[in-house]
Design goal:
Elements (H helix, E strand, L loop, with lengths): L1 H32 L5 E10 L5 E12 L3 E3 L1 H11 L2 H21 L6 E5 L9 H11 L7 E6 H6 L1 H13 L3 E7 L6 H4 L6 E4 L1 H4 L10 H15 L3 E4 L5 H10 L3 E2 L8 E2 L3 H9 L1
Parallel strand pairs: 2-4, 4-5, 5-6, 6-7, 7-8, 8-9
Antiparallel strand pairs: 1-2, 1-9, 1-10, 2-3
Helix pairs in contact: 1-2, 3-4
Bound molecules: ligand C2E and calcium ion (3 copies).
One calcium ion binds next to loops.
Length: 280
């Protein structure tokens, strides 16, 4: 029996090492991905419920690994966060998005883009200056840029993060709290944050359709929208996959929606056509 236990633990250790090695390899690959042009950005629209106009796009990073092909951000972003490399990635995303915004404006397309940022970005005291310099360089108004920060991120190192967040917002950049409802913070805690918008997490939104009005998820979504509005915040729902969910959210007074039902994330060059078709 002892032998068996030993065997299991060595098999476990081997599996463990393998996963560890794989992460190390991925991390070292990650560090050359920018220079080797393996990243690109896809853009997913958010549209206003009132007039069905696109209000903003969200930038989502894509990694095309030379051997593994598409590696989802949920896999490599946490790795980049744990290693500190996320700061380099975030700056690359900001730079790429701002260049794209400038290009769109040159062809008379004025739309805003929100970039996802991480907890480590909010301890990067140089970030507000970096953002301002990019906007200046490309002659863009700050309103062209938004930032999405997850709920847990802001709460983690609240004091420090708050200061940098305040600086970013005073530049005129719109701030959204992402994945709202998945963390521990209450709406009351949000009151003290420099925030413009709440993004209700898709785990609640995707369960809306087919549920009774008094079931848990509809009640959570509806009361979040009401309370957010009372605090002067806009609400966007992510993960809207069908028309029934759209109508429900419209009934609850949700301001904007995002999801596969409107559009999947798409490459930058597909956007002008999509916007043209969507408006008609
Ligand atoms: P997120 O910011 O919460 O982004 C929403 C995710 O849901 C995206 O996955 C998006 O493609 C997906 N999604 C959108 N609409 C629907 C829908 O109707 N149904 C379903 N099932 N999913 C939908 P993606 O692109 O794989 O990104 C996953 C996460 O990776 C993001 O979650 C975000 O936390 C992170 N991420 C992505 N790009 C970046 C980035 O540039 N920087 C940072 N720091 N994180 C990023
Ligand atoms: Ca997001
Ligand atoms: Ca989200
Ligand atoms: Ca998420």
């Amino acid at each position: 029996q002892a032998k068996e236990r030993q065997l299991t633990s060595s098999v476990y250790a081997a599996g463990h090492d393998e996963a560890h090695l794989r992460r190390l390899k991925m991390l070292s690959d990650l560090r050359t991905a920018i220079d080797d042009e393996q990243f690109h950005i896809q853009y997913q629209p958010k549209i206003a419920v009132s007039n069905r106009q696109a209000t903003q796009l969200e930038a989502l990073i894509r990694w095309n690994h030379p051997e593994q092909g598409f590696v989802p951000p949920d896999e490599f972003i946490p790795l980049a966060e744990n290693s500190g490399y996320i700061r380099t990635i975030s700056r690359w995303v900001l730079q790429t998005v701002i260049r794209q915004l400038a290009e769109w404006r040159r062809s008379e397309l004025s739309i805003a883009v929100a970039v996802n940022i991480s907890a480590l970005d909010l301890v990067d005291a140089g970030l507000p200056r970096y953002v301002q310099a990019l906007l200046d360089q490309h002659e863009l108004p700050p309103s062209a840029l938004g930032l999405e920060i997850t709920e847990t991120t802001v709460m983690k190192d609240a004091r420090h993060a708050l200061h940098i967040l305040q600086e970013l917002r005073s530049l005129g950049v719109a701030i959204a709290i992402d994945d709202f409802g998945t963390g521990y913070s209450s709406l009351a805690q949000l009151r003290s944050l420099p925030v413009d918008e709440l993004k209700i997490d898709k785990s609640f939104v995707m369960k809306l359709a087919g549920q009774a009005e008094d079931a848990e998820d509809p009640v959570i979504v509806r009361s979040t929208i009401d309370l957010a509005h009372n605090m002067g915040l806009k609400v966007v729902a992510e993960g809207v996959e069908d028309e029934a969910t759209w109508w429900r959210l419209a009934g609850y007074g949700c301001d904007s929606i995002q999801g596969y039902w409107i559009s999947r994330p798409m490459p930058a060059d597909a956007l002008p056509e999509w916007l043209g078709e969507f408006a008609n």
